[in-house]
Design brief:
two-stranded antiparallel sheet
Amino acid sequence: MKMGEGVEWSLHCCVTLGWLQEQGPVSIARLASWFDLPVEYLKKRLQALVRAGILTSTPGVRGGLSLARPPERITLLEVVTAIEGGVDPFRCTEIRQRGISGASAVEKFSRPCGIAVAMRRAELAWRRELAAQTIADLMAGAPASSVARTRRGFESMNL
C-alpha cells in the first residue's frame, strides 16, 4: 500500500504538537522550518487535519496549530484518512466475469471473488491496527532525547 509523504509529515507534526501542547499554538512556518518542508505544501496537508477535527487553527500573530483533542484520542487511522481520503486501496472490477472467462463459466458468479475477499480482509486488518494506535502511543514510544530536543528547539526558534 502506497501513501503520500503528506501522511508522514502530518503524523510527525501531530506528535510534535503533542509535545508542545504547553507552549500553545505553533505556526506552520515553524513546523515547516523544523522539518525542512515546503510551507505551502505542509499548509495544505495540515489544513486537511483541521477540517477533519484533528487540529485546531488559531488566527493572529500568536496563532498557529494545536491538537484539537488529547493525543490519546487521535488515532493514526484518522490522520491517514484525513490526508489520503477514505478510498479503498483495492477495487475489484470483477474481471473474472468478462471476456472468455466469464462467457464460458458453467456456474453463475454467486460468491464474492476470492481475491477481493482476501484483499478486503487485509485492508481491514491494516485499518484495525492504525485505529488501535494513537498519537499518544507515538509520543510515548519516542526517545526522551527527541522530546527534549524538540521542546528546546521550538523555544529557541525566532519565527
